[in-house]
Design brief:
Elements lengths: L1 E3 L6 H10 L5 E5 L10 H17 L2 E5 L8 H4 L9 E3 L4 E5 L2 E6 L26 H7 L6 E4 L13 H12 L4 H20 L5 E4 L6 E5 L2 E5 L5 E3 L2
Parallel strand pairs: 1-2, 2-3, 3-4, 6-7, 7-8, 8-10
Antiparallel strand pairs: 1-11, 5-6, 9-10
Length: about 230
């Protein structure tokens, strides 16, 4: 099982890695910010179809959650695209992969949202939504791994960076409260962690913050993947 960090449209590097290392018969999980929505719809779909054919030849299954830099439309309509080896995994979906029950939860806030254009490079429904009933239903059995785009507040990163503070100040001038929104989404993801921890959780993988860092909470390993990072789980 291979976990992949944010790609922001840079999927050719992932395909190159697959060819260079002769990867076959594998499961690849990407933690959001694939970059779906920035190109015209037909171009994105054609790219997914080409990737699907590429992976099919190598018996590789690719699972992608939505990040803040993705158009949620693709996940709502993903099953209609006829892809066999690329799965756009919806929020609170649980899949069994290599004997592990994996819970997927996408979404997050773009810190630079005020600088972006709605429905061109920013989608207001990008956010992570805490849905308690969906979480309870998803976790009616044990959960071994969680894959999300953002992280719980109780793990790294622990503080807001100067770049984030810059955008917080920009939104504050415009009468908006980015800081509260960012803290709230991570606190809500903490609620997910608290619940899933009772269901046998062992590992959590996330992206968004563009650094490679592993932290531990009790017996749970939480790994942040750097942009474009490939992590082989064995």
């Amino acid at each position: 099982m291979i976990f992949v960090g944010d790609l922001h449209g840079g999927y050719p590097s992932l395909l190159y890695h697959i060819v260079k290392r002769a990867v076959t018969n594998e499961h690849i999980i990407q933690v959001g910010d694939w970059g779906l929505g920035f190109a015209p719809l037909t171009d994105d779909i054609q790219a997914l179809q080409r990737i699907n054919a590429f992976l099919k030849e190598r018996d590789i299954k690719l699972y992608i959650i939505r990040g803040n830099h993705d158009n949620k439309w693709y996940w709502t309509n993903g099953r209609k695209l006829g892809l066999t080896h690329v799965l756009l995994v919806e929020d609170y979906e649980v899949l069994t992969i290599e004997g592990q029950r994996i819970l997927f939860i996408g979404g997050g806030i773009s810190i630079d949202r005020s600088s972006r254009t709605i429905r061109k490079d920013y989608w207001p429904d990008e956010v992570f939504v805490y849905r308690k009933k969906a979480l309870i239903h998803a976790c009616r059995e044990s959960v071994d791994i969680v894959v999300s785009h953002i992280a719980p507040a109780s793990c790294w990163p622990y503080v807001l960076t100067p770049v984030v503070e810059h955008y917080i100040n920009r939104e504050q001038i415009a009468g908006k409260d980015l800081k509260t929104a960012l803290l709230s989404e991570r606190e809500q993801m903490d609620a997910v962690l608290a619940y899933v921890a009772k269901k046998g959780l062992k590992e959590w993988y996330y992206g968004h913050y563009h650094q490679s860092v592993t932290t531990h909470i009790q017996n749970i390993s939480l790994r942040c993947l750097d942009e474009g990072e490939l992590y082989y789980r064995r």
